[in-house]
Amino acid sequence: MRKLSLALIAAAAIAISFSSCKDTYIDPTQDIFVKDTTTIGAYAKAQKLAVTTIDYGVRYVITQANPTGKLPSVADELEFMYTISKLDGTVIDIAARDTAIYFPYGLNAMLPGLEAGFSKVREGEKAIFLMPSYAAFGTSDAVGGKLPANTPVRFDVKLNRSRSEDQQIENFIERNKYTVAEMQPTGLRVIKTLAAPSGATLIDGQTVTVKYSGSLLRATKPFDTGGTIDVPLGRGSYVPGFETGLKSLKVGEKGVLVFPSSLGYGANIRYNSNGDVAIPPYSPLAFTVEIVSAK
After folding, report:
1. Where are the alpha helices (DSSP H) in 24-111?
2. What are the angstrom distances between the C-alpha of 207 and each of 81, 213, 226, 277, 295?
3. Is the pLDDT of residue 42 over 70?
4. Whether this model's pTM surpasses 0.70
5. What is the CATH number assigned to the segment(s) 166-294?
């Protein structure tokens, strides 16, 4: 993920501070807000952009339409490219065609201006977002110091895809060329990577020794490599997708358990030992497991 994506994550704090109030929170007599909106208005007029004003004072225009494309829904994963620039035309950063970035939509994981703008953009569309500084990077220098504090910005974006959790799971399975051995009505997929037909069946009341690691579907490394643990089946000690998935395997088998956030951590955020976000809200998960023994 490119360096700007870190800035977008850091901006979640800004998003949260404005998420419940939006434009009504801002006193329009404040100098910075008036300056930004005046500058943006003049810029849009000079560039002959037929913009519409939406939440946070963001102005947007669709530059390549796809009327049949899907609009994002809350918790969808957005895949998009962008160019960010100052209104004087200085390009600050670009996400090129081969380095699209991914963010959950509607969960305050992006800049407030991006959240607002993408609410109007369909899959396959291109758009321009003009953002007052408070809806962008706020009162701090950003993008490695290339963007001064209190600077309105322009984002040129293309929304490639907006994927539900189920679509993310299907894409994960396709990318990894997995074959699903069992799919449950809850959305749990069980993939067997090593079968042991003669292995003992697992049932509630047993304690199962499991080797495991857990990952987000697009992660390059696991969020948890807990090694070997003992799991008492039937007690609800672990997230439902993990415990239920184990019972679809036999002793000696290996597999991958893939399930939606409803069987994982739902709307909750999970942090690692450094205090960083390990599992964002509404994240589908994949656990690689090996059933060592059961008693």
Report:
1. 31-46
2. 47, 18, 17, 30, 6
3. yes
4. yes
5. 3.10.50.40
